[in-house]
Specification:
Largest sheet: 7 strands, parallel
Shape: globular
Distance between the termini: 44 Å
Radius of gyration: 19 Å
Helix content: 25-40%
Mean pLDDT: 94
Strand order of the largest sheet: 3-2-1-4-5-6-11
CATH class: Alpha Beta
Strand content: 15-25%
Oligomer: single chain
Low-confidence stretches: none
């Protein structure tokens, strides 16, 4: 049995991945500076910037095979707080790599982002020119370079828009406040409130931003497949994780309206740092790790998010949205 460490295990993706890998019979342990919302898990709470605590953790936890490094600053709305990104992305990654080398752990899966790419209206392959237009993408690209300089076997996954819930395990997206489009659309629909759409004059087919949305279960499955690959062979690969199909903000609204007409919206000004279109080619993911986004149908994404938010209502947990 492989022992997997997940950094950022209290977050949305980390929580879902923890549950997913446990179902696959891996031994999993998590680290996060925030308390985990999941019960009955193996978890240590401390700040990854604390190199002494990190060293003690690795010294106590023997036989870690692979590190899945998810921890970091990712909220695009904090884009002006540059120090947060440098500290929580670059400095934390340096700490992780340094301690991994000390304990002879040489396998890592790193969560990067589509935000490293230069904006284009064409499908983005891993060979596309990288030119981040915000500090989030820049620091993630810097982290990629740090990993590539070291003698690690790695998969660097450039995530596109991860969304929806792992409803079978009652885990999903729950940021405070929530800033991502899919959960906000569902929240406004369920609570009969008006939705704000940022920008209507982008260079796209209907003037609204287009994104490649990937269901959280498909993202978790990609990590599972990568772990299996790293367990038997050396890899140094950078791979896009997305569906290869983009949906505009207006298309998502129309799909939501087919489920419920209780959704009204208004356009507001563009949001700083948003690219008009981000859609990937996932050819390498299919070829190298035999992956396919089987859960990422827009209807399923929306229904699983509705199930998750209804579950939160039963638990009397309120989602707050920034918009």
């Amino acid at each position: 049995m492989k022992k997997i460490l997940i950094t950022g295990s209290s977050g949305y993706i980390g929580s879902c991945l923890y549950k997913y890998l446990k179902r696959k019979k891996f031994e999993v342990i998590g680290i996060d500076k925030k308390k985990s919302k999941i019960k009955n898990i193996k978890f240590k709470q401390f700040d990854l910037l604390n190199s002494n605590e990190l060293y003690k953790f690795f010294n106590n936890e023997k036989n870690i095979d692979i590190i899945v490094h998810l921890a970091g600053e990712s909220t695009i709305d904090n884009i002006h707080k540059k120090n947060n990104y440098v500290t929580n992305n670059i400095n934390v990654t340096k700490n992780i790599l340094n301690v991994a080398k000390k304990f002879n752990i040489n396998k890592i899966i790193f969560s990067s982002t589509a935000a490293v790419y230069q904006s284009t209206n064409k499908k983005i392959s891993e060979n596309n020119f990288v030119k981040p237009n915000n500090i989030y993408g820049k620091t993630k690209l810097d982290c990629e370079k740090l990993i590539k300089k070291q003698n690690f076997n790695y998969f660097i996954f450039r995530f596109f828009n991860v969304c929806s819930s792992y409803i079978e395990e009652k885990v999903g997206e729950m940021h405070t406040p929530e800033t991502h489009l899919i959960p906000i659309v569902v929240n406004k629909m369920l609570n009969h409130k008006k939705l704000k759409i940022y920008g209507s004059k982008y260079n796209t087919k209907d003037g609204t931003c287009i994104r490649d949305y990937i269901h959280i279960k498909d993202l978790c499955n990609a990590h599972y497949l990568a772990i299996k690959k790293l367990s038997i062979k050396n890899f140094r690969e950078t791979i896009n994780l997305g569906t290869g199909k983009g949906f505009s903000n207006l298309e998502i609204i129309k799909a939501a309206k087919k489920i419920s007409n209780e959704l009204n919206f208004e356009f507001v000004s563009n949001r700083y740092g948003d690219s008009p279109k981000l859609v990937c080619s996932n050819y390498r993911a299919k070829k190298i790790i035999s992956w396919s986004p089987i859960n990422s149908d827009l209807k399923k994404i929306l229904y699983n998010e509705i199930q998750w938010q209804n579950f939160l209502k039963l638990k009397k947990i309120k989602i707050t949205t920034k918009y």
